[in-house]
Protein backbone atom coordinates (compact mmCIF):
# COMPACT_ATOMS: atom_id res chain seq x y z
CA UNK A 1 0.00 0.00 0.00
CA UNK A 2 1.33 3.41 -0.94
CA UNK A 3 2.03 5.77 1.95
CA UNK A 4 -0.62 8.44 2.47
CA UNK A 5 -0.05 11.67 0.61
CA UNK A 6 1.36 14.43 2.74
CA UNK A 7 -0.69 17.57 3.14
CA UNK A 8 1.07 20.83 2.31
CA UNK A 9 2.23 23.14 5.06
CA UNK A 10 -0.35 25.80 5.83
CA UNK A 11 2.38 28.15 7.05
CA UNK A 12 6.14 28.45 6.73
CA UNK A 13 7.66 30.51 9.54
CA UNK A 14 11.28 31.56 9.28
CA UNK A 15 13.81 32.71 11.79
CA UNK A 16 15.59 35.79 10.41
CA UNK A 17 19.24 36.09 11.47
CA UNK A 18 21.34 33.14 10.37
CA UNK A 19 18.43 31.61 8.45
CA UNK A 20 17.34 34.12 5.83
CA UNK A 21 19.97 36.78 6.47
CA UNK A 22 23.73 36.66 7.00
CA UNK A 23 23.88 39.24 9.79
CA UNK A 24 26.57 37.94 12.12
CA UNK A 25 28.87 40.89 11.37
CA UNK A 26 26.23 43.43 12.37
CA UNK A 27 25.27 41.43 15.46
CA UNK A 28 28.90 41.32 16.57
CA UNK A 29 29.35 45.02 15.82
CA UNK A 30 26.39 46.05 17.98
CA UNK A 31 27.40 43.80 20.85
CA UNK A 32 31.03 44.93 20.73
CA UNK A 33 30.00 48.59 20.79
CA UNK A 34 28.01 47.84 23.94
CA UNK A 35 31.03 46.08 25.44
CA UNK A 36 33.23 49.07 24.64
CA UNK A 37 30.82 51.43 26.40
CA UNK A 38 31.08 49.19 29.46
CA UNK A 39 34.88 49.14 29.34
CA UNK A 40 35.19 45.56 28.09
CA UNK A 41 37.28 44.36 25.15
CA UNK A 42 35.54 43.25 21.96
CA UNK A 43 34.91 39.61 21.21
CA UNK A 44 35.82 38.06 17.85
CA UNK A 45 32.97 37.62 15.41
CA UNK A 46 33.36 33.85 15.68
CA UNK A 47 32.22 33.98 19.32
CA UNK A 48 28.86 35.36 18.29
CA UNK A 49 28.04 32.27 16.24
CA UNK A 50 27.59 30.52 19.59
CA UNK A 51 26.07 33.45 21.49
CA UNK A 52 23.42 34.67 19.04
CA UNK A 53 19.91 33.31 18.70
CA UNK A 54 18.40 33.66 22.16
CA UNK A 55 17.75 37.40 22.18
CA UNK A 56 19.78 40.40 23.33
CA UNK A 57 19.84 39.51 27.00
CA UNK A 58 21.30 36.05 26.46
CA UNK A 59 23.67 37.47 23.86
CA UNK A 60 25.07 40.07 26.24
CA UNK A 61 25.10 37.63 29.14
CA UNK A 62 27.38 35.40 27.10
CA UNK A 63 29.49 38.27 25.81
CA UNK A 64 30.06 39.58 29.34
CA UNK A 65 30.08 36.15 30.99
CA UNK A 66 27.70 37.42 33.66
CA UNK A 67 24.18 36.97 34.98
CA UNK A 68 24.18 40.24 36.93
CA UNK A 69 20.77 41.77 36.20
CA UNK A 70 21.79 45.40 36.65
CA UNK A 71 24.77 45.04 34.34
CA UNK A 72 22.70 43.17 31.77
CA UNK A 73 19.98 45.82 31.83
CA UNK A 74 22.61 48.41 30.91
CA UNK A 75 24.29 46.16 28.35
CA UNK A 76 21.03 45.39 26.57
CA UNK A 77 20.10 49.07 26.44
CA UNK A 78 23.51 49.86 24.93
CA UNK A 79 23.16 47.04 22.40
CA UNK A 80 19.71 48.27 21.34
CA UNK A 81 21.06 51.82 21.00
CA UNK A 82 23.96 50.58 18.86
CA UNK A 83 21.54 48.66 16.65
CA UNK A 84 19.32 51.73 16.27
CA UNK A 85 22.30 53.82 15.14
CA UNK A 86 23.44 51.23 12.57
CA UNK A 87 22.32 50.97 8.96
CA UNK A 88 22.93 47.19 9.09
CA UNK A 89 24.57 47.43 5.68
CA UNK A 90 26.55 44.24 6.29
CA UNK A 91 23.36 42.17 6.64
CA UNK A 92 22.43 40.50 3.35
CA UNK A 93 20.24 37.56 2.30
CA UNK A 94 21.97 34.22 2.01
CA UNK A 95 22.40 33.11 -1.63
CA UNK A 96 19.26 31.50 -3.01
CA UNK A 97 16.95 32.78 -0.28
CA UNK A 98 15.21 35.52 -2.33
CA UNK A 99 14.38 33.01 -5.07
CA UNK A 100 13.09 30.50 -2.52
CA UNK A 101 10.83 33.10 -0.92
CA UNK A 102 9.51 34.28 -4.28
CA UNK A 103 8.65 30.70 -5.21
CA UNK A 104 6.87 30.05 -1.93
CA UNK A 105 4.89 33.27 -2.20
CA UNK A 106 3.69 32.42 -5.70
CA UNK A 107 2.90 28.79 -4.93
CA UNK A 108 5.53 27.71 -7.44
CA UNK A 109 7.48 25.77 -4.80
CA UNK A 110 4.51 23.82 -3.46
CA UNK A 111 5.37 20.71 -5.50
CA UNK A 112 2.86 18.23 -6.94
CA UNK A 113 -0.67 19.40 -7.67
CA UNK A 114 -1.36 23.13 -7.58
CA UNK A 115 -2.11 24.34 -4.08
CA UNK A 116 -2.60 27.71 -2.42
CA UNK A 117 0.73 29.15 -1.31
CA UNK A 118 1.50 28.78 2.39
CA UNK A 119 1.23 31.73 4.72
CA UNK A 120 4.71 33.17 5.21
CA UNK A 121 5.95 34.70 8.46
CA UNK A 122 9.08 35.61 10.37
CA UNK A 123 9.62 34.89 14.06
CA UNK A 124 12.85 36.27 15.51
CA UNK A 125 14.28 36.91 18.96
CA UNK A 126 15.76 40.18 17.66
CA UNK A 127 14.04 43.35 18.88
CA UNK A 128 10.87 43.70 16.81
CA UNK A 129 11.40 47.16 15.24
CA UNK A 130 14.75 45.99 13.84
CA UNK A 131 13.17 42.77 12.55
CA UNK A 132 10.52 44.73 10.70
CA UNK A 133 12.99 47.27 9.30
CA UNK A 134 15.49 44.65 8.10
CA UNK A 135 12.76 42.51 6.55
CA UNK A 136 11.27 45.50 4.73
CA UNK A 137 14.68 46.50 3.37
CA UNK A 138 15.86 43.08 2.24
CA UNK A 139 12.56 41.45 1.20
CA UNK A 140 10.26 44.30 0.16
CA UNK A 141 8.20 42.22 -2.28
CA UNK A 142 7.71 39.11 -0.11
CA UNK A 143 4.18 39.03 1.36
CA UNK A 144 5.02 38.04 4.92
CA UNK A 145 1.73 38.03 6.79
CA UNK A 146 3.42 38.32 10.19
CA UNK A 147 6.85 39.76 11.00
CA UNK A 148 7.41 39.19 14.70
CA UNK A 149 10.36 39.98 16.94
CA UNK A 150 11.12 40.40 20.61
CA UNK A 151 8.36 42.36 22.32
CA UNK A 152 6.59 42.39 25.66
CA UNK A 153 3.49 41.04 23.89
CA UNK A 154 4.92 37.53 23.48
CA UNK A 155 7.65 35.34 24.98
CA UNK A 156 10.90 34.58 23.20
CA UNK A 157 11.68 31.33 21.45
CA UNK A 158 11.96 28.52 22.54
CA UNK A 159 8.83 29.17 24.63
CA UNK A 160 5.86 27.48 22.93
CA UNK A 161 3.92 30.71 23.28
CA UNK A 162 6.17 32.49 20.78
CA UNK A 163 5.32 30.24 17.85
CA UNK A 164 1.79 29.73 19.15
CA UNK A 165 1.09 33.46 19.04
CA UNK A 166 2.22 33.71 15.42
CA UNK A 167 0.16 30.67 14.44
CA UNK A 168 -2.94 32.21 16.02
CA UNK A 169 -2.33 35.44 14.13
CA UNK A 170 -2.02 33.46 10.90
CA UNK A 171 -5.08 31.35 11.71
CA UNK A 172 -3.22 28.03 11.35
CA UNK A 173 -2.55 25.08 13.64
CA UNK A 174 1.05 24.53 14.78
CA UNK A 175 0.75 20.94 13.51
CA UNK A 176 0.30 22.32 9.97
CA UNK A 177 3.26 24.66 10.35
CA UNK A 178 7.01 24.40 9.80
CA UNK A 179 9.55 26.57 11.61
CA UNK A 180 12.81 27.01 9.71
CA UNK A 181 15.77 28.15 11.80
CA UNK A 182 19.49 27.84 12.35
CA UNK A 183 19.88 27.25 16.10
CA UNK A 184 18.79 24.80 18.76
CA UNK A 185 16.50 27.59 20.01
CA UNK A 186 14.44 27.32 16.82
CA UNK A 187 14.34 23.53 16.89
CA UNK A 188 13.18 23.57 20.51
CA UNK A 189 10.57 26.25 19.78
CA UNK A 190 9.02 24.11 17.04
CA UNK A 191 9.01 21.01 19.23
CA UNK A 192 7.46 22.88 22.16
CA UNK A 193 4.56 24.13 20.02
CA UNK A 194 4.01 20.89 18.09
CA UNK A 195 5.26 22.20 14.75
CA UNK A 196 7.69 20.66 12.27
CA UNK A 197 11.29 21.84 12.71
CA UNK A 198 13.82 22.28 9.93
CA UNK A 199 17.35 23.41 10.72
CA UNK A 200 19.60 25.10 8.16
CA UNK A 201 23.28 24.24 8.27
CA UNK A 202 24.46 27.55 6.77
CA UNK A 203 23.50 29.53 9.88
CA UNK A 204 25.09 30.41 13.21
CA UNK A 205 25.50 26.92 14.68
CA UNK A 206 26.22 24.67 11.70
CA UNK A 207 24.74 21.33 10.74
CA UNK A 208 26.65 19.15 13.20
CA UNK A 209 25.40 21.08 16.23
CA UNK A 210 21.81 21.00 14.97
CA UNK A 211 21.95 17.27 14.27
CA UNK A 212 23.45 16.61 17.70
CA UNK A 213 20.48 18.36 19.28
CA UNK A 214 17.96 16.28 17.31
CA UNK A 215 14.33 17.24 16.94
CA UNK A 216 14.01 17.84 13.21
CA UNK A 217 15.44 17.65 9.72
CA UNK A 218 18.67 19.49 8.95
CA UNK A 219 19.35 20.75 5.43
CA UNK A 220 22.69 21.79 3.97
CA UNK A 221 21.48 23.84 0.99
CA UNK A 222 18.57 26.00 -0.09
CA UNK A 223 17.66 23.34 -2.66
CA UNK A 224 17.36 20.77 0.12
CA UNK A 225 15.19 23.18 2.08
CA UNK A 226 12.95 23.69 -0.94
CA UNK A 227 12.49 19.92 -1.24
CA UNK A 228 11.57 19.54 2.44
CA UNK A 229 9.04 22.35 2.21
CA UNK A 230 7.57 20.84 -0.96
CA UNK A 231 7.18 17.47 0.76
CA UNK A 232 4.73 18.91 3.29
CA UNK A 233 3.77 17.86 6.79
CA UNK A 234 5.53 14.66 7.92
CA UNK A 235 3.12 11.71 8.22
CA UNK A 236 3.90 11.04 11.88
CA UNK A 237 1.41 13.05 13.89
CA UNK A 238 2.85 15.51 16.35
CA UNK A 239 1.30 16.27 19.70
CA UNK A 240 0.29 19.91 19.77
CA UNK A 241 0.43 21.65 23.12
CA UNK A 242 -2.00 24.32 24.19
CA UNK A 243 -0.42 27.72 23.66
TrEMBL record:
One of its GO terms (biological process) is DNA repair. GO terms for molecular function: phosphoglycolate phosphatase activity. One of its GO terms (cellular component) is cytosol. NCBIfam families: HAD-SF-IA-v1 (TIGR01549). This is Phosphoglycolate phosphatase.
